[in-house]
Amino acid sequence: MSTSTGTVTGNYRNGTQRSSLRTQSSASTSGGQKSTVKSKSVLRKSSPGALGGGSSAASKAGSGGDSGVPGRVRVAVRLRPRNGEELIADADFADCVELQPEVKRLKLRKNNWDTDTFEFDEVFTEYASQKRVYEVVAKPVVEGVLDGYNGTIMAYGQTGTGKTYTLGQLGEEDVADRGIMVRAMEDILAEVSLETDSISVSYLQLYMETVQDLLDPANDNIAIVEDPKSGDVSLPGATLVEIRDQQSFLELLQLGEAHRFAANTKLNTESSRSHAILMVNVRRSLKTKDGLSSESSGNSHMTKSLKPPVVRKGKLVVVDLAGSERINKSGSEGHTLEEAKSINLSLSALGKCINALAENSSHVPFRDSKLTRLLRDSFGGTARTSLVITIGPSPRHRGETTSTIMFGQRAMKVENMVKLKEEFDYKSLSKRLEVQLDNLIEENERQQKAFVDEIERITAEAHNQISEAEKRYANALEEEKLRYQNDYVESIKKLEENWSKNHKKLAADRLALGEKNGMDITSNGNRSITTTLEEVSELKKLLQKESQSKMAAEEEVSRLKLQLTEYMKVEVSANSEIMRLHKMLENETQQKEKLEGEIATLHTQLLQLSLTADETRRNLEKHGSEKTSGGLDSFMSQLRLPQIQDPGNVEKPPVAKLFEQVGLHKILSLLEADDADVRIHAVKVVANLAAEEANQQQIVEAGGLTSLLMLLRSTEDETIHRVAAGAIANLAMNETNQELIMDQGGIGLLSSTAANAHDPQTLRMVAGAIANLCGNDKLQTKLRSEGGIAALLGMVRCGHPDVLAQVARGIANFAKCESRASTQGTKRGKSLLIEDGALSWVVQNAKTEIAAIRRHIELALCHLAQHEGNAKEMVKEGAIWELVRISRDCSREDIRSLAHRTLTSSPTFLTELRRLRVDIR
Ligand code: ADP
Ligand code: MG
């Protein structure tokens, strides 16, 4: 043994000192296999994280500075697609998890409105391919094994969630289905050279803390041996098969699976209760010309003395764990307590080791179970470890899924276990929506610009063509005309010349005839006839020529006419082209409008999200850990304290910007959208906007109030009712709006909404709205005759203090208006409240412990008592005693003295008090 192999250098991992350079004996791979390696030094290198870890072997042989990066278990979660049964049974239910692979997060639905969010190293949706799962989860581990590290790949999860599919699928029917074991062997075979390297495989089952050989069923109790010096784990009793090609490996897996099935049948158990373990040992000789490691050639001056060939050994362990549902079950489903205990033992020991590794604990309890003892040299530390946790989508198995996720979370680093707050998800979702939106907007803009440009270009071209054709035609016409005019003038001129020539000649001839009397008349006469004949024939010729050119002119004209019709045709076709383009433009515009509609919808959703996020943030900031009951609270707080509003210096640029972008009209139009989700988003946005006094007038002017009232009538969705009623309550703070609400049948709508509501928050909003209307002097009679008071009193059935407080506020408001009217002399007779039976409720609740209700009731009693017309009834119903109590005990000075004043100024009360000898001073 050379000196270098004997050197042991300190290597700290998780606080434990370990040898980084150590001696490895061939005994670790015995069991009938003939080993040619005697004693080799193997450099154990630090391993970067497996899943998604960078390139291996950061420190090369001989570099010395092996820092021993602790290998955190890398955890991926994989969701199985719904199976046939779930598609039917769970059709009406959402999956119990929602995956966000782009941010590597998993949201676990706790109930309809609450989720927990967890982060993993990788999140695989039901669409993830086997290839990608292999590449992300297993490939880095396999590469490590080829580089001489040990590595482990495990699958953990409830039975039926895809552990075996992920790890052991053979993919004989469809190559795309091949699982991690098959792909890992393919990669290993491709990388090694079978002349110098070797691959050997064992396949085992661990059941009830007993290791069984799946390649030789007779071998059913195999011992685990640990080399105390090197820490290497081996199973000398296990069959070790040398693998030289993929086919023999596939056959081996099939054989193992058949034996597993047979063994389990014999033991009357099933595969979900045992762990299946595949061990692949890879031994590679790294040789250069003179036996040097090829990888160490860069440091050849240091390694030249290393004569013997360097052998690198890596061990890959793939573990298909028992179904995780076993961990907490015992005694049920026909398996023994003993069995439950031992399955528990291995899985919980594994959990403990994972925890210890994650927490960098100095002690990792590998010794606690067979499984962890087997994994000791291949798990954590310098080995690379990947864990796939498999889950199913069914909400029926939420419990199992939750515990699987928690197991996976514990396997992650401790800081990753912190649950993420919902608000972060708003951010990422909002960001995603924003990006999507921006892309859509950009694309739309580009298309629109290109289209407008194209239309302009085509129109201009058509115009040019037409005007050019017209010009050409006019020029040609003009030229022809000129030419014919010239010809004509010319011919006339010629004719005239000829004629005058002949005329002169004739005159001269006659003259000559008269002067010479003796001349021969006959000859003279003959000459004259000859000339005339000549002239006639010349004239004839001229005439002929003239008629020829006339014909030519006529031809030309008809040619031009033809040309003109031709041009006209061109024009007609150009016009139809323009029409076509116009139509296209119209279509495009429609398309654009549709897109804009979609954008507005998206915007509205985004707006709603931003508002909710704002709200959440504000709540978190304001109340710290104090419990708040969500967005609707803000309506009510604003309802009670409108003066809080200060839109001037509230900084919320993204919301304001979005609002501007979408426009109020668009948002209001979405209240009537076909899609219920869009309607809900829109009504929430409107409600949030209505909570700001600054927006209220605008909303009402744009018809928002009418739309909100219509929603109460047209939909049966209670969420919409609740939110719309909240918005109406906010708008009902203003006198003009109150009249509008009444005019549009608001009382009837609010009453029927209240009658059908189940959620106290809905009732609270409706009662708040009616309470606001009760404070309007002008609306008293109408409000009562349309059933407003009856509706208020009807809502006390729910008993929720928030609702009762609003009812009491309404009654106090109403009573106050009545007492004002009676002071002014416009009201006579009993209070409408008393007529509708409000007094007994008021008296019954006058002593309530809840301050918000009591204050309103006390005020209501004082206001009612101010009208002498009510006094008799108040005596009869016992309200007088409440007034006496208020005048004595009320904590508020002003109410106390008001009660006192009313008692002493009413003759009826005074008589009654005197009769019963009650002194109220
Ligand atoms: P486990 O080993 O966890 O008990 P299995 O791997 O046997 O689960 O999977 C149960 C069933 O679900 C099998 O029929 C398997 O083919 C199917 N299955 C599991 N995961 C997937 C997946 N990702 N895609 C398609 N089918 C899957
Ligand atoms: Mg299985």
TrEMBL record:
Residues 1-15 have a biased composition (Polar residues). Its main location: cytoplasm. Residues 1-71 are annotated as: Disordered. Residues 16-30 have a biased composition (Low complexity). It comes from the Eukaryota. The keyword Nucleotide-binding applies. The keyword ATP-binding applies. ATP binds at G157, Q158, T159, G160, T161, G162, K163, T164. PANTHER family: KINESIN-LIKE PROTEIN, KINESIN-LIKE PROTEIN KIF11. Interacts (via C-terminus) with NEK5. This is Kinesin-like protein. It comes from Arabis nemorensis.
